[in-house]
Write a structure and sequence with these properties.
Elements: E1 7-9, H1 12-19, H2 23-29, E2 33-35, H3 36-43, H4 52-60, E3 81-82, E4 85-86, H5 93-108, H6 116-140, H7 144-164, E5 166-167, H8 170-195, H9 204-214, E6 222-223, E7 226-227, H10 231-235, H11 244-267, E8 268-269, E9 274-275, E10 278-280, E11 290-292, H12 304-310, E12 319-326, H13 329-338, H14 341-348, H15 353-362, H16 371-385, H17 390-397, H18 401-414, H19 416-432, E13 434-436, E14 442-444, H20 453-489, E15 495-500, E16 503-509, H21 513-525, E17 536-541, H22 544-548
Parallel strand pairs: 1-2
Antiparallel strand pairs: 3-4, 5-9, 6-7, 8-9, 10-11, 12-16, 12-17, 13-14, 15-16
Length: 549
């Protein structure tokens, strides 16, 4: 363990997946691994994608050092591992590379250009120097906890999740594909009947001709290829003609089919019947994880079709899926960050925050609030977190801008601490050019100084949202690390298989479900001490859909 404590890498996750044979081993090994790209992202998101040469030059003032560049004494490094290479201390990296070059030269002749081994040695040396400088910078910036408790150990957790994968039932996908194809064909024929002529519904140009010429509907935006028929334009025409709804439904169904059903079928690995997504720690400015190849985080949650897709994600025989979902974590974090007494009291007392907001906005007792009014309050609650404008809220609720402004003003009158908090965030961001999360993650927002008003407005919304959404992301990552460690320490076979925004999915043997659920709840609800309690909804089932029921 002491030997491995000096491991630094530029792709820690890839290195762990190469060297370790078990997910548990990856999680344990990551506790002593330092990934310089993860560290670079913490220190400066804008430069984190640069080459190792550039990152080292930025952080240390000197880039790659090849053998010819060295002064007397060489690099002097005695690190036991660099970029996954095992060396015998205090052997010099360049001595190793040069020895390998000489051995090759006996076979293939002398070469004037450094070969791949020399470059690998130079990069390994740069990684070691970069890691040492980054550790110092992380300490100076107050990012030690974020680095050592969250981001660096999370590398092993994600490596294990990618290795394990998520079982997908191909028969369920085939059944859904057949059902959706039949429904899409019915919708297509309905559109053709309403159009009164045959045409290619998948052709934007032909559809535009039908809508704006044949049917005489008012056109919207004009593009280089003609009038736009995107979803915004079509939704604006819903009340104008019955042809619009089946067009939108057809598009949605065919897109879901091609994106998810076909995509998932291709992604199922034949050797284990599971889908192995890739998690990215450095993709989002707020610090949120993203998923790709395939993206399992954008399966629609509120649509029936999305719920049907989730039925195809299943547990191994004899195992169950445990779904744990934070309840209103961003609103709870807003209450903590803003110190707004009314919100804090509502959460401490276990009140329905949307109902409480509706009561205050509409001036009604709880029993008199209608579902529609609670729905409006819910939209306002979450929209405020994202710094929405009155125009944006009017669009989301389908109400006049003046009415939307009334709701926003009413919200701020009820929760004045929230307005003061956002004002302070914007003031600090304007002065410094950045905002940060509760745990110190920093995001630069250059748009705040833009001359263009729309760009500047985007920057203001990002400044308002990042501390809340970014803190939620930090806490979720910390909960993932603690849950994974908890399972290992308890000797459980339970393992994380997916993270989607505020939700974690664990796969566990049937007999381990109660204990794994307890440990998961503990890791998520006790992740941080806040002014309001964090709450998690947990359920289990044989499929992702059943675990969400």
């Amino acid at each position: 363990r002491e030997h491995r404590a000096r491991v630094a890498a530029a792709d820690g996750k890839g290195l762990l997946k190469q060297l370790e044979s078990s997910p548990g081993g990856m999680i344990e090994a990551s506790e002593t691994l330092f990934d310089v790209r993860i560290a670079a992202f913490l220190l400066d998101q804008e430069t984190s994608r640069r080459s190792i040469d550039d990152l080292c030059r930025i952080q240390t003032g000197e880039g790659l050092r090849r053998p010819a560049d060295r002064t007397e004494g060489g690099t002097g490094t005695s690190a036991p591992m660099a970029a996954g290479l095992q060396l015998s201390a205090p052997q010099d990296l360049f001595q190793m590379a040069e020895a390998l070059e000489r051995a090759d030269a006996d076979v293939v002749g002398n070469r004037s250009e450094p070969d791949s081994r020399t470059l690998a040695a130079a990069e390994a040396d740069a990684i070691l120097r970069l890691a040492a400088a980054q550790r110092i910078a992380i300490g100076e910036r107050g990012l030690v906890r974020l680095s050592e408790e969250i981001e660096q150990p999370l590398v092993g957790v994600l490596a294990a999740m990618e290795t394990v994968g998520f079982r997908v039932d191909p028969e369920r996908l085939r059944s859904l594909s057949g059902q959706w194809s039949a429904r899409a064909d019915v919708l297509r024929r309905t559109v053709l009947d309403l159009a009164g002529t045959d045409f290619n519904l998948n052709s934007t140009r032909q559809l535009a001709d039908i809508l704006f010429k044949r049917l005489g509907l008012p056109p919207g935006r004009k593009t280089s290829n003609g009038f736009s028929t995107d979803s915004d334009v079509l939704e604006g025409l819903l009340e104008r003609h019955p042809i619009i709804r089946p067009i939108l439904d057809y598009r949605q169904l065919t897109k879901l089919g091609s994106t998810f059903l076909d995509g998932l079928m291709r992604a199922i690995r034949p050797d284990d019947g599971r889908v192995h997504t890739t998690f990215n720690q450095t993709g989002a400015a707020t610090g949120r994880l993203s998923s790709s190849d395939p993206n399992l985080q954008n399966i629609p949650v509120r649509m029936e079709e999305g719920r049907e897709i989730r039925k195809a994600f299943v547990a191994d025989p004899g195992w169950r899926l445990i779904d744990a979902d934070y309840s209103q974590i961003e609103l709870r974090l807003l209450a903590h960050l803003s110190r707004e007494p009314a919100m804090i009291d509502a959460f401490r007392n276990g009140e329905d925050i949307h109902l409480a907001t509706a009561c205050r906005v509409f001036g009604l007792p709880p029993e008199a609030v209608t579902p529609s009014q609670r729905g409006i309050a819910k939209t306002v609650n979450f929209s405020i977190v994202y710094g929405i404008s009155d125009f944006g809220l009017s669009r989301d609720l389908g109400i006049p801008v003046r009415e939307a402004r009334h709701y926003i003003d009413g919200y701020h009158a009820l929760y004045p601490g929230v307005r003061r908090y956002f004002a302070q965030v914007l003031e600090q961001a304007a002065e410094t050019g950045w905002v940060e999360t509760l745990l110190g993650r920093r995001r630069r927002i250059p748009e705040l100084s833009a001359e263009n008003r729309s760009v500047r407005s985007f920057g203001e919304r990002a400044a308002m949202n990042t501390p809340v959404q970014g803190t939620a992301a930090d806490l979720m990552k910390l909960a993932m690390v603690r849950a994974s460690r908890g399972f290992l320490e308890a000797g459980l076979r339970a393992r994380l298989v997916l993270q989607v925004h505020d939700e974690l999915i664990v796969e566990a043997p049937v007999e381990e479900v109660p204990e794994a659920s307890r440990l998961l709840r503990q890791a998520m609800e006790q992740v941080e001490s806040l002014l309001v309690p964090l709450r998690v909804d947990i359920a289990s089932g044989s499929s992702w859909h059943d675990a969400k029921a």
